[in-house]
Predict the 3D structure of the following.
Amino acid sequence: MDARLEAIKDTVLMRNPGEAEFHQAVVEVFESLGPVHDRHPEFLEAAILERLCEPERQIIFRVPWTDDSGRVQINRGFRVEFNSALGPYKGGLRFHPSVYLGIVKFLGFEQIFKNALTGMPIGGGKGGSDFDPRGRSDAEVMRFCQSFMTELYRHIGEYTDVPTGDIGVGGREIGYLFGQYKRITNRYESGVLTGKGISWGGSLVRPEATGFGTVIFAQEMLKTRGTSFDGQRVVVSGSGNVAINAIAKAQSLGAAVVACSDSSGYVVDEAGIDVALLREVKEVQRGRLKDYAERRGGVTYVDGGSVWDVDATVVLPCATQNELDGAAAARLVRNGLVAVGEGANMPSTRDAVAVFQEAGVLFGPGKAANAGGVATSALEMQQNASRDSWSFEHTEERLTEIMVGIHDRCAATAEEYGEPGNYVLGANIGGFVKVADAMLAQGLI
Ligand code: NDP
Ligand code: 2IT
């Protein structure tokens, strides 16, 4: 790392003790930015990096609610409003027992660059709670969401901060959150949340957007090597929103998607994952992958273990951070891996990224490859602002244009900085320069 940036990084790490995931995200970005600061000493002068690493505002709050047996439960809520240089804070809410400030900050920090790369007018933020929706009834989830919004509502707004879903937060939760916001404020402010239902201000394609976008990005990477998804053997991790839609899109482009996972195990389905059945089990019945395996029949379900033990030419990690380590990466590379498209945020460890890059594997980092979700959120905001709703075809066309644009910008930036094919460098520099220029123009705030 550039010595000037190393000193700033040390201070950031010292000021934010115990936030391992935030440290990891910061270090990865800083490692790309030396050459930018040679060209733009004004960024150092204006302390752009120091300011970027210090969220504009961090909100932590108590979320009390009552479970179905009448017992009081207390969770912790977070919203980190990281950077508003390009637009209102924008980013998801994650409900998962592992959520703490370090995870929310890593996600919020990544979101700044991702959102800049989309070319849409959105800043970066993230939030969530250590609430675990798994095994909770609809009524419990509703009471939790209502309590969460009873504090959050005062910090958000269509011109201020626009949350959406992430792990553990989908259409059901956005519905309860929106209802409570509307009730407290007495405003039908559609643009305050994205990921809404289609009959009450949501956008077609938003549910599919992250998974679809990840595959579109990976397809563009494959094209640079004169190939495509057609005939690839694909392994996807996770079996939630991003994973399911990535599987569907990869299959539509001719790939054989042979495995996916959840936090309990993975399934190998050599005939190709049955997406309609997977959607029914996961999205309608809120079941487990094990249920999919039982209903499908003739497939292998592995309890525990790692889905990365299954060979593939293309892998799409779509579950969670640091789910793919250096040893798994090395094994995949030995067995013929060609490309990685990160549907999740920071799913590959630093060691894994190094293995992929050294082996010349096409590697699309999450902040570029999974930007289709937030980009389509921005399209939802556009539709809300103009009180319009677009067709599936039109919205998907916009998403495709945006993803191809992100790919091309990352590739061009990597080339400009002397490292053709390095999408990590391209994404970090491309996102950073846009935000830094805006921060410089807006003065010391
Ligand atoms: P979902 O809650 O719909 O699905 C998450 C999936 O990942 C589930 O299969 C879950 O398994 C698995 N998973 C979650 N945590 C772990 C863990 N600690 N270990 C192993 N498996 C785990 O979330 P999404 O699909 O929305 O999100 C997946 C990833 O994509 C996240 O990294 C998210 O930040 C990222 N992302 C999401 C976007 C969106 O629009 N939704 C946009 C951009 C990125 P289980 O059910 O067993 O917990
Ligand atoms: O990580 C992400 O980009 C998301 N969870 C989606 C953010 C958004 O505001 O649509």
Remarks:
- The chain has two domains: 3-189, 209-364.
